[in-house]
Design a protein that fits this description.
Mean pLDDT: 77
Distance between the termini: 31 Å
Order of helices and strands: HHHH
C-alpha cells in the first residue's frame, strides 16, 4: 500500500496535476498514523497495541497545541 501511495505522488508530480493544496493533502495523508500496520508490528514483537498507544499518548509533548 505504501508503494501505491508513493507512485501516486510521483505520477501526480510528473504530470503536474497536483497544485500546492493537492501536495499538502498528500502530505497530510502520509502523516496520519497507520494503526493497522502498527498493530501488526506490535503483535509480531509481542506487545499489546492498546498499552503501547496509551504509553505513547502519555509522553509529554514538546510543543503547544494550536
Amino acid at each position: 500500500m505504501a508503494k501505491h501511495k508513493e507512485s501516486r505522488k510521483k505520477n501526480a508530480c510528473k504530470s503536474q496535476e497536483v497544485d500546492f493544496c493537492g501536495t499538502y493533502t498528500l502530505i497530510e495523508e502520509d502523516s496520519l498514523p497507520h494503526y493497522e500496520t502498527l498493530r501488526w508490528y506490535l503483535e509480531i514483537i509481542g506487545l499489546d497495541f492498546a498499552e503501547v498507544v496509551k504509553v505513547v499518548n502519555n509522553i509529554p509533548k514538546l510543543y503547544n497545541e494550536i
